[in-house]
Amino acid sequence: MVERILAAALLLATAACSNTADLRKAELSELSGWLPGTYDSGAASIAFVPIYAPFISDNVFFNEETTVQGGRQVVTQRVVAFDVVDKHIVQASYLLTEPARWRAGLQHPDLFKSLMEADLRLLAGCEMLWVKDEGRFVGANDRKNCRSARPGGGLAFLESRAEVTADDYARSERYYDAAGRQLSGPGDEALERFRRQ
Protein backbone atom coordinates (compact mmCIF):
# COMPACT_ATOMS: atom_id res chain seq x y z
CA MET A 1 0.00 0.00 0.00
CA VAL A 2 2.74 2.46 0.97
CA GLU A 3 4.64 1.57 -2.21
CA ARG A 4 1.57 2.39 -4.32
CA ILE A 5 1.09 5.76 -2.59
CA LEU A 6 4.77 6.64 -3.06
CA ALA A 7 4.63 5.58 -6.72
CA ALA A 8 1.51 7.69 -7.28
CA ALA A 9 3.12 10.70 -5.56
CA LEU A 10 6.25 10.29 -7.68
CA LEU A 11 4.15 10.05 -10.84
CA LEU A 12 2.25 13.24 -9.92
CA ALA A 13 5.49 15.09 -9.12
CA THR A 14 7.02 14.01 -12.43
CA ALA A 15 3.89 15.11 -14.32
CA ALA A 16 3.92 18.49 -12.52
CA CYS A 17 7.58 19.04 -13.46
CA SER A 18 6.86 18.06 -17.05
CA ASN A 19 3.81 20.35 -17.18
CA THR A 20 5.85 23.26 -15.78
CA ALA A 21 8.63 22.72 -18.32
CA ASP A 22 6.06 22.49 -21.15
CA LEU A 23 4.39 25.70 -19.93
CA ARG A 24 7.76 27.53 -19.86
CA LYS A 25 8.54 26.29 -23.39
CA ALA A 26 5.17 27.62 -24.60
CA GLU A 27 5.83 30.94 -22.86
CA LEU A 28 9.31 31.11 -24.40
CA SER A 29 7.77 30.56 -27.83
CA GLU A 30 5.41 33.48 -27.18
CA LEU A 31 8.23 35.74 -25.92
CA SER A 32 10.36 34.84 -28.96
CA GLY A 33 7.44 35.79 -31.21
CA TRP A 34 6.92 39.17 -29.52
CA LEU A 35 10.55 40.30 -29.25
CA PRO A 36 11.72 40.75 -32.89
CA GLY A 37 11.39 44.25 -34.25
CA THR A 38 12.59 47.81 -33.87
CA TYR A 39 11.59 49.93 -30.89
CA ASP A 40 11.97 53.71 -30.49
CA SER A 41 12.03 55.93 -27.39
CA GLY A 42 12.56 59.24 -29.21
CA ALA A 43 16.18 59.46 -28.06
CA ALA A 44 17.28 55.91 -28.88
CA SER A 45 16.31 52.91 -30.94
CA ILE A 46 16.62 49.22 -30.04
CA ALA A 47 16.29 46.36 -32.51
CA PHE A 48 16.08 42.59 -32.09
CA VAL A 49 16.56 40.35 -35.13
CA PRO A 50 16.32 36.53 -34.97
CA ILE A 51 19.55 34.85 -36.05
CA TYR A 52 20.63 31.28 -36.71
CA ALA A 53 23.09 30.17 -34.02
CA PRO A 54 22.05 26.64 -32.96
CA PHE A 55 25.26 26.10 -30.99
CA ILE A 56 23.87 28.66 -28.49
CA SER A 57 20.10 28.05 -28.58
CA ASP A 58 17.07 27.79 -30.83
CA ASN A 59 16.00 31.29 -29.69
CA VAL A 60 18.84 33.69 -30.51
CA PHE A 61 18.68 37.39 -31.43
CA PHE A 62 21.09 40.06 -32.58
CA ASN A 63 20.40 43.15 -30.46
CA GLU A 64 21.58 46.60 -31.50
CA GLU A 65 20.97 49.90 -29.75
CA THR A 66 21.51 53.20 -31.53
CA THR A 67 21.20 56.80 -30.47
CA VAL A 68 19.26 59.07 -32.79
CA GLN A 69 20.56 62.38 -31.43
CA GLY A 70 23.19 64.00 -33.63
CA GLY A 71 22.90 61.30 -36.29
CA ARG A 72 22.57 57.55 -35.96
CA GLN A 73 25.32 56.04 -33.79
CA VAL A 74 25.58 52.44 -32.62
CA VAL A 75 25.76 52.34 -28.82
CA THR A 76 25.78 48.58 -28.16
CA GLN A 77 25.64 45.31 -30.04
CA ARG A 78 24.87 42.03 -28.32
CA VAL A 79 23.70 38.55 -29.03
CA VAL A 80 20.98 37.38 -26.65
CA ALA A 81 19.78 33.80 -26.29
CA PHE A 82 16.76 32.38 -24.46
CA ASP A 83 16.30 28.85 -23.11
CA VAL A 84 14.24 27.01 -20.54
CA VAL A 85 16.59 25.97 -17.73
CA ASP A 86 15.33 24.30 -14.54
CA LYS A 87 11.75 25.41 -15.26
CA HIS A 88 12.78 29.04 -15.80
CA ILE A 89 13.10 31.14 -18.96
CA VAL A 90 16.73 32.29 -18.90
CA GLN A 91 18.34 34.94 -21.10
CA ALA A 92 22.10 34.84 -21.66
CA SER A 93 23.85 37.86 -23.21
CA TYR A 94 27.02 37.85 -25.28
CA LEU A 95 29.33 40.61 -26.48
CA LEU A 96 30.74 40.35 -30.00
CA THR A 97 34.56 40.16 -30.08
CA GLU A 98 34.66 42.08 -33.40
CA PRO A 99 31.62 44.39 -33.40
CA ALA A 100 32.50 46.09 -36.71
CA ARG A 101 32.26 42.74 -38.50
CA TRP A 102 28.53 42.55 -37.74
CA ARG A 103 27.52 46.19 -38.45
CA ALA A 104 25.17 45.14 -41.24
CA GLY A 105 23.58 42.44 -39.07
CA LEU A 106 20.20 44.15 -38.78
CA GLN A 107 19.78 44.41 -42.54
CA HIS A 108 21.50 41.08 -43.33
CA PRO A 109 20.90 38.56 -40.49
CA ASP A 110 22.31 35.80 -42.72
CA LEU A 111 25.75 37.19 -41.81
CA PHE A 112 25.36 35.40 -38.49
CA LYS A 113 25.34 31.99 -40.15
CA SER A 114 29.14 32.26 -39.95
CA LEU A 115 29.02 33.06 -36.20
CA MET A 116 31.27 30.83 -34.08
CA GLU A 117 31.91 30.50 -30.35
CA ALA A 118 35.16 32.46 -30.72
CA ASP A 119 33.12 35.45 -31.95
CA LEU A 120 31.28 35.75 -28.64
CA ARG A 121 32.06 36.57 -25.02
CA LEU A 122 29.42 35.51 -22.48
CA LEU A 123 28.46 38.10 -19.88
CA ALA A 124 28.80 35.49 -17.16
CA GLY A 125 26.66 36.01 -14.07
CA CYS A 126 24.42 38.49 -15.89
CA GLU A 127 21.73 36.01 -16.95
CA MET A 128 18.17 37.31 -16.68
CA LEU A 129 15.19 35.24 -15.51
CA TRP A 130 11.92 35.96 -17.33
CA VAL A 131 8.35 35.36 -16.15
CA LYS A 132 4.99 36.00 -17.77
CA ASP A 133 2.92 38.47 -15.78
CA GLU A 134 -0.47 39.93 -16.82
CA GLY A 135 0.03 40.16 -20.59
CA ARG A 136 3.72 40.96 -20.49
CA PHE A 137 7.06 39.29 -19.86
CA VAL A 138 9.25 40.67 -17.08
CA GLY A 139 12.97 39.93 -16.81
CA ALA A 140 15.59 40.71 -14.18
CA ASN A 141 19.09 39.63 -13.24
CA ASP A 142 20.80 39.14 -9.88
CA ARG A 143 23.12 42.14 -9.66
CA LYS A 144 25.45 40.61 -7.08
CA ASN A 145 26.59 38.10 -9.74
CA CYS A 146 26.84 40.53 -12.68
CA ARG A 147 30.07 42.50 -13.01
CA SER A 148 30.14 44.61 -16.14
CA ALA A 149 31.96 47.58 -17.65
CA ARG A 150 29.88 50.68 -17.09
CA PRO A 151 29.52 53.66 -19.41
CA GLY A 152 32.37 56.04 -18.73
CA GLY A 153 34.72 53.22 -17.73
CA GLY A 154 35.35 50.98 -14.76
CA LEU A 155 33.76 47.77 -13.57
CA ALA A 156 30.65 47.72 -11.41
CA PHE A 157 27.74 45.49 -10.49
CA LEU A 158 24.97 45.76 -13.09
CA GLU A 159 21.27 45.52 -12.26
CA SER A 160 19.20 44.87 -15.41
CA ARG A 161 15.42 44.81 -15.68
CA ALA A 162 13.27 44.59 -18.81
CA GLU A 163 9.69 44.14 -19.98
CA VAL A 164 8.31 42.94 -23.32
CA THR A 165 4.73 43.18 -24.57
CA ALA A 166 3.32 42.70 -28.04
CA ASP A 167 3.68 46.49 -28.55
CA ASP A 168 6.69 47.71 -26.59
CA TYR A 169 10.01 47.02 -24.92
CA ALA A 170 11.22 48.64 -21.70
CA ARG A 171 14.45 48.40 -19.79
CA SER A 172 16.57 49.79 -16.97
CA GLU A 173 20.28 49.38 -16.30
CA ARG A 174 21.76 50.65 -13.05
CA TYR A 175 25.36 50.25 -11.87
CA TYR A 176 26.44 49.82 -8.23
CA ASP A 177 29.73 49.62 -6.35
CA ALA A 178 30.65 46.74 -4.01
CA ALA A 179 29.04 48.57 -1.05
CA GLY A 180 25.70 48.81 -2.89
CA ARG A 181 25.91 52.53 -3.71
CA GLN A 182 24.43 53.43 -7.07
CA LEU A 183 27.04 54.77 -9.48
CA SER A 184 24.99 55.45 -12.60
CA GLY A 185 21.67 54.82 -14.27
CA PRO A 186 18.17 56.11 -13.46
CA GLY A 187 17.61 57.17 -9.88
CA ASP A 188 14.21 55.51 -9.58
CA GLU A 189 12.56 52.20 -10.48
CA ALA A 190 11.06 53.55 -13.73
CA LEU A 191 11.86 51.74 -16.96
CA GLU A 192 12.82 53.51 -20.19
CA ARG A 193 10.04 52.67 -22.66
CA PHE A 194 10.44 51.99 -26.37
CA ARG A 195 7.44 51.71 -28.72
CA ARG A 196 7.42 49.20 -31.56
CA GLN A 197 7.90 50.89 -34.95
CATH H-level name... which superfamily? Answer: CpcT/CpeT domain
Helical region count?
A: 1
N-to-C SSE string, H for helix and E for strand: HEEEEEEEEEEEEE
Whole-number total of structural domains: 1
Number of strands: 13
> Radius of gyration in whole Å, from Cα?
19 Å
Task: Give the overall average pLDDT.
Answer: 88
Weakly predicted, low-confidence segments:
1-17
- What gross morphology would you assign? globular
Highest-level CATH class: Mainly Beta
Which topology does CATH recognise?
A: Lipocalin
**Mind describing the biggest β-sheet?**
10 strands, antiparallel, barrel
Q: How large a portion of the residues is in β-strands, by DSSP E?
A: 35-45%
* Strand order, largest beta sheet: 1-2-3-4-5-7-8-10-11-13
Question: Summarize this, please?
Answer:
This protein has 1 helix and 13 strands; from the N terminus they run αβββββββββββββ. By secondary structure, it is an alpha+beta fold.
